[in-house]
From TrEMBL:
GO function terms (MF aspect): ATP binding; lysine-tRNA ligase activity; tRNA binding
UniProt catalytic activity: tRNA(Lys) + L-lysine + ATP = L-lysyl-tRNA(Lys) + AMP + diphosphate
Name of the protein described by the UniProt record: Lysine--tRNA ligase
'KMSKS' region, short sequence motif: residues: 272-276
Protein encoded by which gene: lysS
Length: 527
């Protein structure tokens, strides 16, 4: 069984074309997040796979920046509703940091495209209209308006008016594009009326207007020779944009509709991503908590139409554990649970990988680093010692010392620790956070049995050199059993004395990560 990206590339390879053009598009109506940028990641993966198969393939990204603003996106002020209905490219930058609204919301994505290994040519819908790219297709649409109207009406409950044209001029009075109605034309001159009360004429060559979406989509398939395009499931609904545009593409523009790759939306903590409500998670934010490959893995580990929910909070630790496991299996550092899982892991990581042929990245376990960082602070060498002491390094690194790390491995290590720091500061719940109380013994009550347990544990740690956390863990349970003390009470006593709270990380690993003399003295309440 092969990966779905591979299957798409195989299907496209059968087409008799000189070059495959895989298109993606994003409406610049606000922040671009991991949900509405799926097009880009899928298109890039398909193009990459085609090139691996020896096919000519190029990926393009079209910014739908000539569409009207329908909702004020988060975190813009309410007074931005004055721009509702206007093309995105004509709206000013909300912070005055960019040339306009579009650049402001495009920048965060375009700044990290290289980090994700994405190769694409960026196009602007607004500039395409202004430069005349669409002019001939507007003329063809007007000449065939009756047939286009019939195609639309087949999918509509209420038929379009007889004077309807598949085009919306920008009103020269109010600047809006979604409130105008084009009803007649003479050559390149379009007559329109606007809901603001204005009636006027517009020359299509001015670029101050746009084809209605389903006609525009079909036109650009022909303009660029697009052979494959991913898009959200809303466009794939029966009678939706793809169905209608496909008919228009073939009947009006004499071009076969591209291979469709519909995908399911991504939810965030169970809630639909919404730019207007501020519910979204962006690709640049992802890089603050994980490597670029991990987002690829998230997107490609399941089929595109499978529901996906992402949480950067506690569930993220399970996710990044899984990613690390897959990566280590790919690099033969660990074994997969079964042969079937082994094939699956390698297949997915091969798609997710950005720089093929590079050596195993040095990414110590994220979950363990959450604790190690809070113990050692931002001291990479000290954290490395804790990793070694707790057998947290895989076989390629277990015999290495800190100074043996290459420049690349050190940068990957630094990146992973920075990811952990950001996750702790931004998404970690309170119960994950702790601070070792080094200056004085916390004044928290203990039972006599808990005190006995701590004394016995101090004696054990002082007299024994433990090779790993499991050995200490088993010895701790032996003491608890002898004293008839419940494990929960025993561990609470450890956390009270060292952290000044009732809970903390796994006790055995935690104790081995601390200075031995400090642990012994603290358990005896001596320092």
């Amino acid at each position: 069984m092969t990966h779905w990206i591979e299957n798409i590339a195989d299907e496209l390879s059968k087409k008799d074309v000189e070059e495959h053009i895989i298109a993606s598009g994003t409406s610049i109506s606000g922040s671009i997040h991991i949900g509405n940028s799926c097009d880009i990641f899928i298109a890039n993966a398909v193009g990459k796979k085609l090139r691996e198969k020896g096919k000519e393939a190029k990926t393009i990204w079209i910014a739908d920046d000539n569409d009207p603003l329908r909702k004020v996106p988060y975190p813009l002020p309410e007074d931005y509703d004055q721009y509702l209905g206007m093309p995105y490219s004509t709206i000013p930058c909300p912070d005055g940091c960019c040339s306009n609204f579009v650049e402001h919301f495009e920048k965060p994505l375009l700044n990290v495209i290289e980090d994700y290994g994405i190769e694409m040519e960026a196009k602007s819908g607004y500039e395409m209209y202004k430069s005349g790219v669409y002019d001939d297709y507007i003329r063809i649409s007007f000449e065939n308006v009756n047939e286009i109207r019939e195609i639309f009406n087949e999918y509509r409950r209420e038929p379009l008016a007889e004077d309807w044209l598949p085009y919306n001029p920008v009103c020269e009075e109010c600047g809006r594009i979604n409130t105008t109605y084009a009803y007649d034309y003479d050559g390149d001159i379009v007559k329109y009326r606007c809901e603001c009360g204005h009636e006027g004429e517009m020359d299509i060559k001015s670029g101050n207007g746009k084809l209605t979406w389903r006609v525009e989509w079909a036109a650009r398939w022909k303009i660029f020779g697009i052979t494959c395009e991913p898009f959200g499931k809303d466009h794939a609904a029966s009678g939706g944009s793809y169905d209608v545009s496909s008919v228009i593409s073939e009947k009006i523009f004499d071009y076969p509709a591209p291979y469709p790759v519909p995908y399911e939306w991504i939810t965030l903590d169970g809630e639909a991503m919404s730019k207007s409500h501020g519910v979204f998670f962006a690709p640049d934010e992802w890089l603050k908590i994980g490597p670029a490959e991990s987002l690829n893995y998230y997107l490609f580990r399941s089929k595109p139409m499978k529901a996906k929910d992402f949480s950067p909070k506690m569930p993220y630790l399970d996710f990044i554990d899984q990613f690390d496991k897959v990566e280590k299996v790919f690099y033969n550092e660990e074994e997969a649970p079964s042969e079937k899982e082994d094939r699956k892991f390698r297949e997915i990581y091969e798609i997710a990988q950005i720089n093929a042929g590079e050596p195993l990245p040095f990414r110590p376990p994220f979950r363990f680093l959450v604790n190690a960082y809070q113990i050692a602070g931002d001291d990479l060498e000290k954290i490395f010692e804790i990793l070694k002491k707790n057998s947290q390094l895989t076989k390629s690194f277990e015999d290495k010392e800190f100074d043996d790390l290459t420049e690349l491995e050190m940068s990957q290590y630094r990146e992973r620790v920075d990811n952990v720091i950001y996750w702790l500061d931004t998404y970690a719940p309170k119960f994950v956070k702790f601070q070792v109380q080094t200056k004085k013994v916390p004044n928290l009550p203990l039972t006599d049995e808990q005190t006995q347990f701590l004394d016995a544990l101090a004696d054990l740690i002082e007299a024994t050199e433990f090779s790993d956390a499991k050995e200490l863990h088993d010895a701790m349970y032996g003491i608890l059993e002898n004293l008839g003390l419940k494990p929960q009470k025993g561990f609470q006593a450890i956390y009270k004395m060292i952290l000044g709270q009732k809970q903390g990380p796994r006790a055995a690993s935690f104790l081995l990560s601390l200075d031995k003399d400090f642990v012994v003295k603290r358990l005896r309440k001596e320092a």
